[in-house]
Amino acid sequence: MKAALFVTCLVDQLFPNVGEAAVKVLRHLNVEVAFPRDQTCCGQPALNSGLRYEATAVARRFLKVFEGSEYIVCPSGSCTSLVRLFYADLLSEDPHLKAQAGLLASRTYEFSEFITGVLKVTDIGARLEARVAYHDSCHSLRELGISRGPRDLIKAVQDVELVELPHHDVCCGFGGTFSIRYPEISSAILRDKVDNILKSGARILTATDSGCLMHINGALTRSGGQVEVLHLAELLARGLERADA
Amino acid sequence: MPEVKTAEFPRLSRQSLADPQVQSSLRRLSHFIEAREAAVAEVGEQEWQRLRDQGRRIKEHAIAHLDYYLELAADNVVKAGGNVCFARDAREACDYVLKVAQARRARTVIKSKSMVSEETGINTVLESHGIRPVETDLGEYIIQLAGETPFHIVAPALHKSKEEVADLFVQKLNVQRKESITELTAIARAALREIFVQADIGMTGANFVVAETGTVVIVTNEGNGRMSTSLPRVHIALMGMERVVPRLEDMAVFLRLLPRSATGQRLTSYTTFVTGPRRDDEEDGPDEFHLVILDNGRSRMLADEALREALYCIRCGAWVYGGPIGAVVTPILAGLPQARHLPFASTLCGACREVCPVKINIPHLLLTLRSRVTQGPPADRHASWLERIAARAWQYVVTTPWAFGLAGRAAAILQLPLLRRGRLRWLPQPLNAWTRTRDFPRVAFRPFRARWSRIADQHPREKT
Fold first, then answer.
1. pLDDT digits over B12-69, tens only?
2. What does residue A32 show for φ and ψ, rounded to 5 degrees?
């Protein structure tokens, strides 16, 4: 099976390890991974700020870049939800582009969703001795309905103990530009999230979105707590390394 | 008026966050959330979803045929012996209420359960004509004594501690200081009873108005609503024009949805159905009944296809911890420039949509409003030239791969003097809003796109 990786701008520029980990896991599952080199961003920061024209221009370009890809896999629930739920609306003025956006939507998958839903795999053969907490990223959970898949993937990793965070489905307060526009509100929400993570006794925190993880880790590193933050792809990739060793 | 505060939202939000009293009160709200979850669980997930769908469909239908159902409701109110006023704006509504009050030489108006009266600013109008409006919901009563506006539609005095209320009662009611909630409630009750008996007019809101019968439905917990509709000789009900539902049967759906969503109750203590004034064969009830149907910007919402959904709202308050429907409704009613901060004051996490009893897609409505603030029609727009240039520059960078790569490299170099143990602990304006409370990760020296050529070769099967 072939799939094109859309790493997202955040992973490309800030967390390239997440991209590498995603490639490693997908290849392990016999997926031929392609990386269309002209990719940049999905347009989320623009739409989130109310910049519809700019978001539309980016969407139009995204369509072209991923035109020939049978599957598009993305290590972010938030970016996936934008492509899947908003592109057709952004491009609705041109019926041809709108139809293309509809087709693109049906080919674009969030990383965990692709593994559990398309490849139909939950046990990837990984192994990792750790207490892991899973944070439900809002867009993964409530725009895409992703909740069980990532948990099944984590539980299937040998020797992992999955702990449920209190209020696991409550937002971390990131919200893209919200975190800068309303830093006080954003940080107050984040403080609760960090308290719950520290209380849970987890050694690793994982999620399907680097945006949320960046936000949470930003406060965790200042709290002096000993919790490591890993994207789900990184967690699974590390598990594969340990299983090989 | 609420508009004035809305423009100051960013400052007020910081103030509330720094207020330990407000914060601890909000923490206590979690019991509302738990009660709501339990009340919903009791119905069963499947049945609850079915109810939400049904509620949504009734609202869709009623709003799509609003002209028809409003006229039907008005006709039936008149048939039952009541009077109807269609008020285009707050002023027309106030004028009508004032006219009725003056014709009856009213001195005291008791009020219960009306956010629409808050919207119209009727209290100020009545006071300026020597008529005393008295709020009779306990929370509203406290707020009125303190000279403030409600904190939240379901819990107006949420931000007040019982000690503050005790002080307030001593100061305003001339009573001995009591601190237990039971005693405080008794003080308010005694003070209000006297006013109930004297009042000339009872003014209420309307949770629903049934078109086929002309019935006003009011859902309350304190019983003051029923006192307001039955003790004074005149009852005036104020409704937003979106409150109409077609049939009495529809109440079977909404009376299950609303209390469970609002306060986590199966049913509120009092559910009052009022159809016109007292009839000849009845002992209790007012001699006169008036229904004021308020537009005040709602028909603008109705005409606006992208935002019409906001009219389905039944004001349950279940979004108390999520993203507020108020951030959608206020900009439309008060004007977007006035309320431009509100649509941006949400993470768009979607929790509000999940609890909404009529499935309003609030996050998507907020996005629509955001795009109107930044690039909507000139009357709505509010973006500086600097913001516009930044937006264009951003677009150029992300649609031009070489520029995107270059911007990343530039950031990677510029960050060097600021790096502390691989993290950024301080960033200049406006990004210091982030680093005041959070570390920022470092920009990768080798981004993924630069790593790809190496990774691509590791796997002999593919080349890009």
1. 888 888 888 888 877 777 777 788 889 999 999 999 999 999 999 999 999 999 999 9
2. -85, 115
Q: In this complex, is the C-beta atom of B11 within 8 Å of any C-beta atom belonging to chain A?
A: no
Q: Report the complex ipTM.
A: 0.96
What letter does residue B345 receive in the DSSP assignment?
A: S
- Show residues of chain B in contact with A183, CB under 8 Å: 433-434, 436-437
- Which among B63, B77, B119 has a CA at the least distance from the CA of B236? B77
Q: Does B273 touch chain A (CB under 8 A)?
A: no
Amino acid at position B139, single letter: G
Say yes or no: A61 contacts chain B, CB-CB below 8 A: yes
Tokens for B307? 């935002």
**A225 vs B: CB within 8 A:** no
A201-241 pLDDT tens trace: 999 999 999 999 999 999 999 988 799 999 999 999 999 99
Which of B15, B17, B356, B437 should be substituted to probe chain A, the one whose Cβ sees the most A Cβ atoms within 10 Å? B437
Query: Which domains are delineated in chain A?
Result: 2-117 (3.40.50), 124-244 (3.40.50)
Residue with tokens 């109440």: B251
Residues 6+ apart with CB under 8 A from B431: A180, B440
Interface test with B, best of A74, A182, A187, A222 (most B CBs within 10 A): A182
Q: Which of residues 201-220 of A touch B (CB under 8 A)?
A: 214-215, 217-219
At residue B411, what is the residue type?
Answer: A
> In A, residues 70-129, which contact B (CB 8 Å cutoff)?
none
At residue B322 the predicted structure's pLDDT band, cuts being 50, 70 and 90, is: very low
List domains and CATH numbers for chain B: 2-298 (3.40.50.10420), 305-375 (no CATH), 387-458 (no CATH)
Over 60: is that where the pLDDT of B321 sits?
no
